[in-house]
Design brief:
This protein is α+β, with helices and mostly antiparallel strands and 502 residues long. It has helices at residues 11-24, 40-44, 63-73, 89-97, 107-114, 116-125, 141-151, 174-192, 249-264, 297-304, 308-316, 396-409, 419-425, 429-432, 440-450, 455-473, 493-500; strands at 4-7, 27-33, 47-52, 77-79, 101-102, 155-163, 166-171, 197-201, 207-215, 221-233, 236-242, 270-278, 284-290, 333-340, 342-343, 349-350, 353-354, 357-359, 366-370, 377-378, 385-393, 411-413. It folds into five domains: 4-103, Rossmann fold (3-Layer(aba) Sandwich), CATH 3.40.50; 132-201, ATP-grasp fold, A domain (Dna Ligase, domain 1, 2-Layer Sandwich), CATH 3.30.1490; 204-331, D-amino Acid Aminotransferase, Chain A, domain 1, CATH 3.30.470.20; 337-457, 2-Layer Sandwich (D-amino Acid Aminotransferase, Chain A, domain 1); 458-500. It binds ligand MV4. Residues 131, 156, 163-165, 200-203, 206, 208, 232, 235, 277, 287-288, 438 line the site of ligand MV4.
């Protein structure tokens, strides 16, 4: 049984994993880089070890240093979190070779699912629907054209070693094909050291829906229903919710069965996610499998009432699953907003810096998974996601209302954040109506940016309010005077009056 667990990660997910460890009576070991010396995961852990300079290539990606810390500290297991080494089959193998439990699936499952061509072949054999396209890698441009004659333009060229949108090209017509294949190939070669590419039919306005899987080492495999992840920008998810507004009980049953079959096809154990593209007619296609704990796992935890990290640890300990499929029931609705330290007014440029003040929302049905405290400097070296706000409501409507309330309560100063951008998503008609797909942000960008009351605007308003109060004290104006105030991008007389209490 695992007594001491090393978390080979940082930020909110390191803290999240440690929280479950604490409840299970498992001691925790943190590792940290130069930039993370004072980070929350270091303070939360029972022990912490420095593993190198700030760039992840010199710290969180260094397998040798992490294994050395595991040995020195006497940790009997490693949890990789997400990102970094979490989907590195060689790392999982190294842990196994060194007699350390890797909290995740087998190296075989990671390798099979990591290679998208092998993953597609495995799914076809398992009878799971995949996007129409090539079964093998493209060996000649002539063969590629023959293939496309069958499926028709437009198509997607994808790197077999890719995933998450990297090394991907859309091709509308034959004249673009050859340069797209060559481009995708060289991008794949330089990014992944593998130039294998394949072709898929282009699905034009898909939803991105994924199923959470749990499987133990005895072959028991269940799903914890779906997450709707279509609200994303440049392959970065922004808002996730469950249930999906598109889902029906029949479709869930069918996709859930296929998700379980997909996991079983690679003898999967641990927590994992099957990603699907789904069109408006409920046709769905396997896209890829994520062989790790995901950022958005808390919405599933909230709606089905399962601690996914606890299950991961149980599975790694060789225990059977705590739940059977028939015991899994969704209750209510959950939404997650990812809060990034970035500036929506400046093309979402990352904005690292020191957190000056932070006030987190609380109350019924509210969870925040973060790692900030006042005075901590968000490093520039890692992902700009600084917190996740997860709410629950009995209905979708209630969850949206609660999300609006808690976004309004959330105060982070010192760094620019996406809070106000998220707030305007909650007011966008397509989102409110649950009628959105993966094009949601690009299609609503003008609305999303124009409707926002930015932090700087709030500061302008506060300044104007202060000045008005000063003038009214000098009796230059009456408290009932109406003002019309214009700032650079925003005008809203009603709200300014409210802010000034006149
Ligand atoms: C596609 C697609 C349309 N047709 N494949 C993007 C991320 C990578 N995992 C796969 N992606 C896509 N693959 C075919 N055949 C559209 C996307 C896609 C997308 C998928 C999921 C979530 C957001 C997306 C945004 C743009 C494109």
């Amino acid at each position: 049984m695992i007594k001491k667990l090393l978390i080979a990660n940082r930020g909110e997910i390191a803290v999240r994993v440690m929280r479950s460890c604490k409840e299970l009576g498992i001691k925790t070991v943190a590792v940290f880089s130069d930039a993370d010396r004072k980070a929350k995961h270091v303070r939360y852990a029972d022990e912490a070890y420095h593993i190198g300079a700030s760039p992840s290539s010199e710290s969180y990606l260094r397998m040798d240093k992490i294994i050395a810390v595991a040995k020195k500290s006497g940790a009997d297991a490693i949890h990789p979190g997400y990102g970094f080494l979490s989907e590195n089959g060689d790392f999982a193998q190294l842990c196994e070779d060194e007699g350390i439990i890797f909290i995740g699936p087998s190296p075989y499952a990671i390798h099979t699912m990591g290679d998208k061509i092998t993953a597609r072949q495995t799914m076809m054999e398992a009878g799971v629907p995949v996007v129409p396209g090539t079964k093998e890698k493209i060996t000649s441009e002539k063969r590629a054209l023959e293939m496309i004659r069958e499926i028709g333009f437009p198509v997607m060229i994808k790197a077999s070693a890719g995933g998450g949108g990297k090394g991907m090209r859309m091709v509308k017509e034959e004249s673009e094909l050859i340069s797209a294949i060559r481009g995708a190939r060289s991008e794949a070669k330089s990014s992944f050291g593998d130039d294998a590419v394949y072709i898929e039919k282009y699905i034009s306005s898909p939803h991105h829906i994924e199923f959470q899987i749990l499987a133990d080492k005895f072959g028991n495999t269940i799903h914890l229903c779906e997450r709707e992840c279509s609200v994303q920008r440049r392959h970065q998810k922004v808002v996730e919710e469950t249930p999906s507004p598109l889902m029906t009980p029949e479709l869930r049953e069918k996709m859930g069965k296929d998700a379980v079959a997909a996991a079983k096809a690679v003898n999967y154990y641990g927590a994992g996610t099957i990603e699907f593209l789904v069109d408006d007619d409920h046709n769905y296609y396997f896209l890829e499998m994520n062989t790790r704990l995901q950022v958005e796992h808390p919405i599933t935890e909230r709606v089905v009432g399962v601690d996914i990290v606890r299950e991961q640890i149980n599975i790694a300990n060789g225990l059977p699953l705590t739940y059977q499929q028939t015991q899994i029931k969704q209750r209510g609705h959950s939404i997650e907003c990812r809060i990034y330290a970035e500036d929506p007014d400046n093309n979402f440029m990352p904005c690292p810096g020191i957190i000056r003040e932070i006030v987190e929302p609380l109350g019924l049905g509210v969870r925040t998974d973060g790692y900030m405290y006042e005075g901590f400097e968000i490093p520039i070296f890692y992902d700009p996601m600084i917190s996740k706000l997860i709410v629950w409501g009995e209905t979708r409507h209630e969850a949206i209302s609660r999300m609006k309330r808690t976004l309004d309560e959330y105060k982070i100063s010192g760094v620019k954040t996406s809070l106000s951008f998220l707030r305007s998503i909650m007011e966008t008609p397509d989102f409110v109506d649950g009628k959105y797909n993966t094009h949601f942000i690009e299609q609503n960008l003008d609305f999303l940016l124009s409707k926002r009351i930015c932090d700087t605007h709030c500061e302008d308003i506060a300044m104007i309010a202060g000045f008005v109060e000063y003038l009214s004290k000098l009796k230059k104006i009456q408290p009932t005077t109406q003002f019309e105030v214009y700032t650079n991008k925003w005008k809203d007389v009603g709200r300014i009056k409210a802010a000034m209490r006149i």
